[in-house]
Amino acid sequence: MAQHLLYLDALEKGVDQDELVRDMLENKEHKTLLARYLKAELYDQVTVSEDEARSHYDRHRDKWSGKYEDVAPSVKGDLKDKLLIEKKNDLIERLRDKHEIRYNEPALAELARQLTDEKASNREEK
What we know:
The protein is 76% helix and 0% strand. By secondary structure, it is mostly helical. The protein folds into two domains: 1-41; 43-126, no CATH class.
């Protein structure tokens, strides 16, 4: 309850209108939305069966010391991480095909020129 009262006071004082605060809130919103999206689209979709884990263990025995039964949770986690990366990369490729990404070529060229000039200037100073 105390936290909520402080929150209401902050709103009354316009803290939420500060540009830095608005940027922080927007960033937090994006991270929360992305975390929920990735959980639903990726993490919840990838499962590792006992057979898949054992096969992964057999193919990569040098990664673990001990019998499969002793390291099974680690093996399953390792395989799930690998599958998640593959699924995420596939999703990104599908999204790239679906959405056109355009770059501001003149701005990129100007930035490259500025960085090149700055690097040359730093070399001259040495």
